[in-house]
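Ticket #4471: structure output looks truncated?

Reporter: J.K.
Steps to reproduce: submitted the chain below (269 residues) through the standard prediction queue, then opened the result file.
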Amino acid sequence: MGSSAAAPVPARVHTPNTRARRLLGALDPPVSTLPWLRPDQAGPEEPGGASELGGCGILGVGIWLAATQGNFATLSASFPSLSAANLLIVTGTFVMAIGFMGCIGAIKENKCLLLTFFVMLLLVFLLEATIAILFFAYTDKIDRYAQQDLKKGLHLYDTPGNVGLTNAWSIIQTDFRCCGVSNYTDWFEVYNATRVPDSCCLEFSESCGLHAPGTWWKAPCYETVKIWLQENLLAVGVFGLCTALVQILGLTFAMTMYCQVVKADTYCA
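Returned output as attached by the reporter:
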């Protein structure tokens, strides 16, 4: 029996155009050096996204307070610029800037921006932890200083340029049903008379602060607000823990992406 011969396989012809296409294909860079930044693959969220959104929210609330309430909650005589609106605006701007830096660093795979985001977020985290530790370590001293400073601030009540302080005391005394820092007699030194603001009255009416002490709130505002904060300590603690968790996740993602970019650059080199 005769066997049929196998058909010859045609040899590949490497034309100049074929070689050029292969060379250019080998030199084409990948879409991204990080797997989760490729269009067909998903991965962890950009480290600065949550910070940027949170910063925008804080900044918006601060601007709203400044526009509608003036310098609301400016209770300190030593730090007149330490108002709720100013604090929220500064904090929101700073947090938004850090978050924007993290987002750009993740999108561009920029080592400098990622490392800067990590360092700044770490400094904020350490600062918050330090403030919390000092607050609990020196609670008594902070209590005494706060009461003295608030009593000094009473002398700025209803004076030109202190609308924020006036509004803050009026709202606190009305909502918490209290009068003065330690008691209603704190206002006697302010007016040099037996008189309190109308917001101290049990039943508000024009010039009711000139009436007898029996028509005024007796509870001290400092202790009343302090008790209210202690009763809501759980909510404050949960908020603090959530904030710390978001910051820790941001630090983790930033350092992970930074290490991936460094490894990719080393591999490509």
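Triage note (M.O.): checked the attachment and the full token line is present. DSSP finds nine helices and no strands in the chain.
Status: closed, working as intended.
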